[in-house]
Structure formats: structure tokens, C-alpha cells
Amino acid sequence: MFNHRHALLILISLLGLAGLSLGGSLLAGSIQVSLEDWLALLRGEAPSMATQVILELRLPRALAGFACGGLLALAGALMQVLLRNPLADPYVLGISGGAGVGALGAILLGLGSLGIDALAFCGALGALFLVFGLARGDGSWTQTRLLLTGVIVSAGCGALIALMLSLAPEAKLRGMLFWLMGDLSQAATPWGALLFLGAALLLSLPFARELNLLSRGQETAQTLGVAVGRLRLLIYFIAALATAAAVTTAGSIGFIGLLVPHLVRLAMGNDQRLLLPASVLAGGALLMGADTLARTIIAPEQLPVGVLTALLGVPLFLFLLSRTGGRP
Amino acid sequence: MSLLLETRNLSVQLGSRQICRELSLQLSAGERLVILGRNGAGKSTLLSTLAGLRPSSGGQVLLQGKSYEELGARSAALQRGWLGQHQDNAFASSVLETVLTGRHPHLGRWQWEGPEENRIARQALEDVGLQGFAERDVQTLSGGERQRLAIATLLTQQAPLMLLDEPLTHLDLNHQIAVLELLAQQARAGTALIMVLHDPGLAWRYGDRALLMYGDGQIELGDCSQLLTAERLSRLYGHPLLQMEQDGRLAFIPA
Per CB distance under 8 Å, which residues of B are interface residues toward A? Predict the structure, then answer.
């Protein structure tokens, strides 16, 4: 596994997969785009109806899907190392719960999509700092304490969400449920999420080898030359902010953050130098593909993409797990 | 002889209990110090304080004249290696990947392990008798094999000072001696060793100096040949011990 060329090859094929997924999501849909339209688009001529659909509807949505999938997969991979727990996912520390409380609150108040995004992000940040403050309480900041604090904050947010759902008027329920299940049609613009994705990947990659050591235990990592305290702080904030950005853009899409790092790990091992960028590409490609299906399967109706990621991811994961004899 | 480790009036506390009071110790290249004491006497706690893993309650720990704060994690890793009591992995990983982690402090941030790292790692695996295990998954190894893998990783780190917490855990008798011989060979090449051991006979045979910890803050430090007597060890362990001698080697047996 310690081979540049091997790593590069895997990343290039995943990049190809993401490209295919992007192409598919631009082509698929109820409005057919002819070859002439594409050529006109490439020549930069006045946009027709069809090219407008591509540029203004499908492309932003596909890019938002890529960004959210990448963010969730990256956050999941980082959380699994931070907590040294294969079951950790981006939502385990309550960040999606916080965002959910914010978003549902905004929907209840009748705010527009900008208001929903803003309150969701504030909710995510609130949960982030709440968990951080509580878990650091006595300075011990152990994995178990962090995990327990996250689980408790999640449970609290879950209760608030249930309360809001039960108080909400009928007309708003569908929007609230779609938000909770994760839905890319609410993504206004992909640029924020893409920016977060780039920043999170660039910030975490320099520490990839140190993360390999951290996954083997804090004391081992420390004696091998990792400034563990600082690294854990950095990773916590990168993972939490990545989750917050993804959840704000598209709601809490499930399973990507848990499954994709495991899929990548099963396919190519646990070297974070490869795992982190590969998870981003695979997560992005998977979510873009799932979203294309979500809006075409029963068109003109749309399914929440979170349902599809789970339906696609679970059998894929079980297949890989059985093939490798059950090692996580 | 260069001074690799020095403590000045080091005090260590475990909860409210003082396990070590004003310890001043100097360790030079090639020296082997053995720590002995009952369960819970604070041997591991003292060792992890020496490794810079936990703060002391007073005094200083210096590596070649510098404190851990001055050195930073990376420079410290080039000077001291540490073998913990527990080897566990949350994720699957190959034996070779694991042993290569010892090279981390020697590599730049963007540098990947090259042929030289591979050579050092495979040599270390051979030294502990794990040749042919390189591609095995760590999670399929037995307890003793994991322990030897951890020792190979420590060797790969090539630190001039090695701190070993119970290096013989899970090892059968032949591997216990093989590991101690391997460490003795490292010491002859100039590595300083501090080992927590449980067998005073092996401590006598493979140590130069001994540190006896009584658990109440009382500590004795001296040459193994003088310090390790049946009378003193009986007091240390709170159980009478018999001393046997055969072919110039000592063994201590519970009476």
C-alpha cells in the first residue's frame, strides 16, 4: 500500500467515477438535451431552454451533491479516527441534531431558504461548541467522554425535533420531514459547500500520516512524535465544520459518512493519506449518483436522496463485508 | 558517555498518592535500568512520566538536557521510544504497515516510506522472529506475536533511549530470553534502556541498575548486583523469596 503510483491510480479512477456520475446527473432528467444543444453550450452561444436547465438547475444541484457527499465522507473518516471507533459517523457528535433544531425552527417561523440555512448552520455550531465545552470540562477530553457527550446532545436535539414536528401545522410537515431525511433540492448554491470541502481536505491532508498513528492510540501516537492534543482539536473542528456545511446545504443525508470511509477502507486499506481524498471522491460520486436516481425514478415526483443513499449503500456495504470475511 | 536521560528531583503523583519523591537519576548510553515493584506501585506511571506522556508533580525530566516542552513531540520521538502495556488496533492494518509507523518521526510531512524504511522495518521484523508475517493483518496475530510486533516497531524508531513497560508480557520463555538478548544487543550498540520487569532473576541478569518502588513514595536505586537480594526483594513484594544460584545465575523463587 505504500506506493505513490498505486495511490495515484486509485485516485484517478475515483476521479473518473466522479466524472461519470457528474455526466449522468447532467444528462438525466425529464427534459432531453440534444447534441446540438451541447455543442452550442460548449461554443458559448446563446443558451437554449435545454442548456439553461443544465446550467441553472442540474449543474448546481450535482455540484452541491458532490460537495455534500465529499464533506460527509471526509467528516466520517475523520470522526472514526478521532474516536477510534469504526461506528462513528459525522452525526455522532450531535452536529446534525443541532442543525435540525435550527432548520426546523426556521421552517416553523416561516423563514425563507436563506433563513433556514442560516439557522441550521447556527444550530450546528451551537451543538459543536456545546459538545466541545462539555467534553473538555475537566480537561480529560477522552474518546469515551467525547462520544457520550455527543450521544447525549444528539438525544436532546432529537427530542426537540420531535417536539417541533408534533407542534408543526400540517402544511409544513412535509418540508420538515424532507429536510430531516436529506434533500438536495433545497440546496440553493453549491459554492459554499465546495469551498468548505476544499478547505477541509487541504487542512486535513498534511496530517494524514499523523492520523494513521492516532488511530493506533493516543499514547503510541504521542511517543512517535504526534502532538496529539493539538491534532485532536484540529480534527474535531475540521470534521465538525465539514458536517455543519453539508447539513446546512442538504439536510441530514444518512449513511454516506458512515459507509463511504468503510467502503474505501475495505477496498484499499486504512492509510489516511489515500483514505481521505478517496473518501471525498467516492462520497461525492455516490451522492451525485443517488441524487440523480432520486429525482428521476418516479419523476416528476422526487424522493429524498437520504433514503436512496441508505438503500444503495447498505447492500453494497454488506456485500463488501461478507467478501472480506467481516473485518471492519 | 553522553547523558540520554536525566531527572532532577522528580516527584510523581497518582491521584492523591505520592509514588515517587524527589528522584534524581542519570542514564547514559548503553545503560540498562530495571524497575521492579508490586502491582500498583506506580511503575507504569513513573515510566510514562519519563516518556513525557503525563505531567510530573514536581521536578524535571530532561532528554539530552532538554525538557519535553522544549523539544516538542517530533524531536522527542527521535530521542526516546516507548513500549506500552497494551497493543490494540481499532482498524485492520498489516504487520508491515504497523512496523513502519516507527519511522514516522524520521519522515518529512509529505514524504512517503521508501526502500530504506522498508529495509529497516523488515530487519526489525526479522529481529523479533516475525519474518514472513509482513502482509498478515494485525488483528489475526496472537498476543505474543502482537507484543513482538510492538517491539519491532520500537526498534524501527531507532531512538537512543527506549522505555519498555513490561516487554515480556504474553511472551513464552524462549521469546522472553530472545527479546532480552535483543535488547542487550541494542544496549551494547549504545541504546539506553529502562524496563519494567516482574522477574527479579531476569532483572539481575539483564539489568545494570535497579529501581525498586515500594508504592508509598519510597524508592531505592542501585546496582543490580548489590540491590537484588532475597531479603530486600521479600520486603519489596511482601512475600518471602528464596534465592537460588546455578552456573553463576540467580533465580528468586516464592517461598
Answer: 48, 51-53, 72-78, 80-82, 84, 86, 88-94, 97-98, 100-102, 104-105, 107, 109-110, 112-113, 118, 137, 139, 157
